[in-house]
Amino acid sequence: MNAVEPGPQSRGVLANRCYIPAAHASATSGPTTVVSLGDSFISGEAGRWKGNSTISTTDRAGTDRAWTGTGYDASRVYGDTDASGCHRSDVAEVLSTVVFFAGKINLACSGAVTANIFRSSNGGQGEKGEPTQAAKLRYVAAITRVKVVVLSIGGNDLGFADIIQACAQAYAAKTGPCNPAQQQAVNSRRQAAFFGVGKAIDEVRAVMADAGYQRSDYRFILQSYGSPVPRASEARYGELDPQRASTGGCPFYDADLDWARSSLVSQISDGLSYVAGVKGVEFLDLRNSLQGREVCATASRQATVNQPPSGETSEWARFLTLNLAQGEIQETLHPNFYGQKALGRCLSLAINAGAGRGSCRTTAGKGPDGMVYTR
To answer: Which end of the chain is less packed: N or C, by CB atoms within 10 Å?
Structure first.
């Protein structure tokens, strides 16, 4: 893990890896920090994109933040994690918070499963050339005063990427909805996945305890996921409209959209909520955090040359198209620049509200600043 220079003191912001103070700190000294751990949903995957557009040249109607003026350089957004694939973006959720801590540190990595959180001595596995996230957290906890730990994990243990691929392939091949088979797959993975989430919580606590922290010294928030796709009734394109797959970015059957938005996301959120309750950590419910801003949602639109992207009108998740060569496949169906900003706003509200369980939801017609948090 590399050190980077701290940001301006006036803003109290540290960079997205870690800040090294002049002297060793303890649990009660050093600069205060909020730390994110987990997978692509919180690492900042898709932060490169300010909405979606079918324009394939230059900055793609203002949506591609990797445009340099002569070409594309995704490291402008993901830094040195562009090459590794961890894709910790400059607008990742924790970095988009407005909180009264000296540092905001993002240790998450795209593609992470629960075993990537664990300590190596307890079955942990490094990812993409990096040590386990427990090892990285141990370092941060030793040199800063961690006040909040935020964890997003479990989706990859349930096979989220496999589900997307299977459902898109079913739509393209016209073989019928994928959700019956994929629900069976989720059912077969559920117990192990949520057990892994519980163990990840235990592992984080063990790291913090080894660094001299009492549980009362920091807050621990487990968060769920938002749906990147809308319900069928809220999709801009009909099920048989060729635009749904060619340029719309949501190549799924109506039944699969409904299952993903109303059933699968809720199943995952409910399961994570249960684990949080059993383990005694806070829970942040994000199942409605992209409502109306999902890919293909009727309340949002794609950017064009004459209608540039904006937080009030653009989609907040990266689309999945079958004929556009833009970016990387791993970015698809993740919160984009606007989605990350909105999630940062949500996390800010949750932190500033004090310890407890809550949920976030969008406000119709408003941008990321319109995110609402309720207990």
So the answer is: C
